Amino acid sequence: MTLVIRHAAEPGAVPLGGRFASNVLSDWGLEYLGELAALIASELSTNAVEAGGTPKAEPGRGERETLPSVAVRLRVCERTLTVEVWDTSRTLPRMRTPDADAENGRGLPVVALSSERWDSYRHPSGGKAVYAVLRLAREVTDRTGALRSRTREPYGRVRGGFLR
Q1: What are phi and psi of 71, to 5 degrees?
Q2: Is the pLDDT of residue 147 over 50?
């Protein structure tokens, strides 16, 4: 199973990634991962907005249409959940140790501690994706008992600033 949401790369949109993760996982019967996946999606979305978006909390009228986009993808494959966030920046993230009084720099350490593994890659059609993998308590099956989608495809191509 795979589901994607796209939104403008603006600070006000960061909570959308977390709510998306929580709601989708509830729909998929994976409520027990909802809070953790929401945290990871929010942290990665924050980094994506900072990397390629606007620092303005509220873009002016007409500005949203010109902003780059951010995409959050959730993918269940056998016994894992992947939370992946794409943005238009080609600069890969790097782990750092923030100063004790720093206001930022803790997102990737939180993601690393909360997930089985995380990584990033430059997407062939532009931008980059950062993802975290969580282990499921069991394989996810549909009502017939068959394994749900084993989809492993990457995001679609980027056209006009939006992921398709």
Answers
A1: -125, 140
A2: no
